[in-house]
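# nightly structure sweep
# worker-07 picked up a monomer target from the shared queue
# config: single-sequence mode, recycle default, output format = structure tokens
# input follows
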Amino acid sequence: MKGRIKEDDSSVPMKDGPFAYGTSYRTGGQHPRFFRVPREGGEEAILIDGDAEAEGKAYFRIGGVDHAGDHERLVWGFDDKGSEFYTLKVRDLQTGEDLADLIADTGGEGQWDATDNGFFYTRLDDNHRPSQVFHHRIGTDTAQDRLVYEETDPGFFMSVGGTRLNDWIMISISDHETSEYRLLPAARPDAEPVLVKAREAGIQYDLEEGGDVFFVLTNSGARRTFAS
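# output follows
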């Protein structure tokens, strides 16, 4: 199998501000490395080395990795028990050291707000369901994290993400056939999320940003035709 796999594979770096970010693997390694390079030229910097983080652990898996808009820090998730309950850490990209902020039992990803002083994340319940969205401010006790939204229907799951322009935080809620979105301004992390359209059984919709508008893709009103 190894003979058919490009062991030192890497992604095309994605440009963002003064840097381009990407992932790569070293030959013989098992985990991704997250790196960035200056867009004007310069040396590659390894931000997270998955193989180094996994050293000495019986199990290790990296979750999401997201850098702040000011490129000073990133939030990253990992599971070192095989439970699929991820812990989030915050890394200072100037020193390469993780801060004291540590959040357990998450879905594995964090989404920075537009102030770059905090991020949103989902917390898993005992049934491994992302049932709550919280906002954490860097340097504060995680017990003080603000509960942004809680989904009480045990059949629905949640995720939280951001738009490419970093102007909106999007909370996606869905089961296998029904979906719902809630939005809040990324620059106002203390704002209450606004419902886009209330869920309706069997109706699914997705949001795609288009500058100062959102485009909605939905099965509402869709008609099926079958050849006889």
